[in-house]
Amino acid sequence: MADVLTDRLPLFPFRSPDDDPFTPVTAADRRRLDGPVTRVRLPTGGWTWLVTRHADVKQMLRSDAFSADMTRPGFPLLRTPPPATPQNRRGGFIRMDGEEHLRLRRMLTAEFMIKNVRRIEPHIGDVVDGALDALVAAGPPADLVATFALPVPSLVICHLLGVPYSDHAFFQQRSAIMLDQSADPLAVRDAATSLRAYLGGLIETKRTSGNPGDDLLGRLVSDRVRTGELEIGELIGMALLLLIAGHETTANMIGLSVLLLLQRPAVWQRLRDGGDAEADTLVEELLRYLTIVRTGLPRQAIRDVQIGGRLIRAGEPATALLSLANRDDDVFDDADGFDPYRQAHQHLAFGFGVHQCIGQPLARAELRIALTRLARRLPGLSLAADPAQLPKRDMSIVYGLAELPVTW
Ligand code: HEM
What we know:
Layout: H1 4-7, H2 27-32, E1 37-41, E2 47-51, H3 54-62, E3 66-67, H4 98-109, H5 114-138, E4 142-143, H6 144-149, H7 151-161, H8 168-179, H9 185-208, H10 216-225, H11 232-262, H12 265-273, H13 276-290, E5 297-301, E6 305-307, E7 310-312, E8 317-320, H14 322-325, H15 360-377, E9 382-383, E10 405-407
Parallel strand pairs: 2-8
Antiparallel strand pairs: 1-2, 3-5, 4-10, 5-8, 6-7, 9-10
Helix pairs in contact: 5-7, 5-15, 7-11, 8-9, 8-11, 9-11, 11-15, 12-15, 13-15
The protein binds protoporphyrin IX containing FE (HEM).
The site of protoporphyrin IX containing FE has 24 residues, from helix 11 and helix 15.
């Protein structure tokens, strides 16, 4: 699809400034956009419509005129896809449409309902306390990303799925490759293949044992696989999706949130002394302000559709840029400012429409519990590095800090 005109378009994804992780799109990049729905160039050679206003992003993501199926020719890809293997995509319902998507998503809805997440909150609390003990034992100073932000969501998702945490280094390393936009397609394929083989072995053990276990994978084996509703290959793909979607996202939110809070002592104190309701409000504003899925949500129009006054034709690619939609002054007062008192619940950090994040009640609970307990256990926490020099994961689909040295 590349042509001379495409070459002149701004290159997407935009990069946050090296020294400022809180600016998802710089003023210079914003100025280069020719309107709220405009074309940008992709690193894979094509282009995509970039949809940036809150109302337009909602309209796009709830419209059935768009497909999320990345195997369609012309789908807006950020990297060359790995060579297809027959098992590659099975069960990965985040990139499926219609009934195929709904059938698999529905099997998980109950697992992530607020009342069920409430039930595992005591476990999340124990995991957070254990990670705090490890942090205290490691420092001061210590790297908050490695000792706290990554292990907490990783332990929680492993517990929920019934995956042994002792294998976390194996899947953390591979899921980072799968999220890396700059990774070699063959490395991505190998990472997916080895994760599938690992999860396949685990599921097979559950399937052949008399008692598959009272965890998410065990329940799906008993209730869906044994009844013939779900194939093993599909379950492996669902487990892979949850494992990847469930840890780096929340981990990156924890790391960036702590960096922001340590630079705002009054908000840090409010978190320490306030109740759950205040922490919940703060978490919503952190989700809005940080919007870690900065590469946007890719789709392809399957029929002609008007978005924000632009005609997007059948077959054309489009990307919903959540980070700018969450900074839309029509919806949020002083949208580029961070306001811990703001009622930010209209934010789109979890997406919108049929693919809206299924894990959001879990992510919210993890963030509230992790951040409040950290503030209470280590009220004197401070940065042990120049905030402008911190290494970032800026080639990942999910933006975050690679390290956060802290002291207390
Ligand atoms: C703060 C943390 C998180 C953020 C910011 C986040 C963000 C998102 C976004 C933006 C989407 C929409 C993708 C699209 O429409 O193409 C999504 C979907 C999804 N998320 Fe999350 N997520 C987070 C945590 C989690 C957790 C903890 C889990 C699971 C344990 C999870 C599981 C999923 C799944 C399975 C989908 C696909 C839903 C579907 O296609 O129906 N996420 N997430």
